[in-house]
Amino acid sequence: MAILLQPYQRYFQFSGRARRKEYWLYMLLFYVAMFVLAFVDSAIGLGGETQTAVDTTNGFSASANAEGGILTGIWAILNIVPLLSCAVRRLHDTDRTGWWVFITIIPLIGSIWFLVLMCLDGTPGRNRFGPDPKDRLGRSAEAVFE
Q: What gap in Å lies between CA 43 and CA 64, rounded to an integer?
């Protein structure tokens, strides 16, 4: 549970490293909350434009919120900084600068490449951005080679 809250504890911290586990669990939390809040927005009428499809032969109707609602928008705005800082720390774990976040500006290819970077394993041991967050051997890599 603590790892889910770690991006919020390190809200404005763009230095250091973040494990894949921290990044992907945070992304899971973010999107599950977006889904739940979109449902709540729709249920209480805070959502945007609603699209309704009606099948008159079977009496079936379904509606979907085509735009995000107020709660979804607030959640997204509050998470801009933690999303960026966690992504930058994740890039640091792969020994890349945080400027790689801007690769997503390139349509399609940039987003695919960014996804690949987020899935890569981090640099074992210390790199220029700090110690290994996994601490794979239970001690720092420098202590092994001393």
A: 11
Q: Using one digit for the tens of pLDDT, what is the confidence trace for 12-54?
A: 999 999 999 999 999 999 999 999 998 898 888 877 665 555 5
> Would the pTM of this model clear 0.85, i.e. be above it?
no
pLDDT the model gives residue 7: 87
Query: DSSP secondary-structure letter at 70?
Result: H
Q: Give which of 44, 53, 111 is closest to 72, Cα–Cα.
A: 44
Distance CA 130, CA 132 (A): 7
CA–CA distance, 59 with 80 (Å, rounded to integer): 42
Return all residues near 34 (Cβ < 8 A) that are at least 6 apart.
Answer: 72, 75, 76
Q: What is the largest CA-CA distance in the chain?
A: 77
**In which residue are the tokens 């770690």 written?**
6
Q: Is the pLDDT of residue 64 over 60?
A: no
Distance in angstroms (rounded) separating the CA atoms of residues 29 and 131: 26
pLDDT at 77: 95
How far is C-alpha 27 from the geometric centre of its chain's CA atoms? 3
